[in-house]
């Protein structure tokens, strides 16, 4: 096994400049959900450069989604490459380094895939930040026939099995009756409905279990100070340990929004937004293999008291096939974590470059070890056969 790992490592180092450059290119050209045209093309070009991968583009009827495959082994192992950026922030979640490390891992494994009995797949997954592209791909069978999948995400901590939670979002639209502020008695104030709803949600939080999160933002609530708002829009996200719990909490939160409508006389309409992030189920066979390989590279995994992170549509994949989603850290202050401009800048600098090296190499070594571990390999294949 050590000789194989040594060859995989040398192959990874050979491609390191290519994948680091890919990371910088993606970071410099951030593209939003379902619009990752140049990003997707750049990733595909990097994979095709080695001559080992065949690529199917536009999978699941998503223009930027793709599946790249190398090898013909009976163990099919996937690596996910996220692509989209955040509005106004760019790659503040580090998807550029996620994609580049995925490419690096795949390129390092491809020359040895048949020897290892592997089929290596890279899944180009759009719209993680909004739209949950992986949910669409899972539902349309793109991950069918894959025995396991992995990706590594940047954060401020090194954690092998972070707690990644379920979430779902809704849009609430209030319709009132406008009027001049000098004669407000004939109007129905849609903006006031948002105030009542937010107050009710604030009071509800005392009755919610620890860890439940209710996020909301008023997107529209009038346009002039002396005009009663006849229209208001609120987006709401609920985050819990499971998607079933999210739906239970929503029934209580929905009544808070109903209260805004009742109090003001405004009409209210609820729309489910397309993003659905299911809870993550880490595979307990893959986790220790990744941890040992990442430690060998120099990463440490302290026993943090808080291993709770956000939500990801990689959870949607993990409920369908065995999966792992470790976190590797950037060296930044706590207040400059994910979804900040500072994190986006770090993803293009030395922190990002170190992540690309460590995450990609750790994934490649992990997959190589799993392929050579008869118990884990047989277990993954058997689980797929048993449904």
From TrEMBL:
The keyword Nucleotide-binding is annotated on this UniProt entry: no
Gene Ontology molecular function: dipeptidase activity; para-aminobenzoyl-glutamate hydrolase activity
Source organism superkingdom: Bacteria
Key word Cell division present: no
Domain Peptidase M20 dimerisation: 165-259
SUPFAM superfamilies documented for this protein: Bacterial exopeptidase dimerisation domain (SSF55031), Zn-dependent exopeptidases (SSF53187)
Record-level GO cellular component terms: cytoplasm
UniProt keyword list: Hydrolase
Any Gene Ontology biological process: folic acid catabolic process
Family: Belongs to the peptidase M20A family.
Official protein name in the record: Peptidase M20 domain-containing protein 2
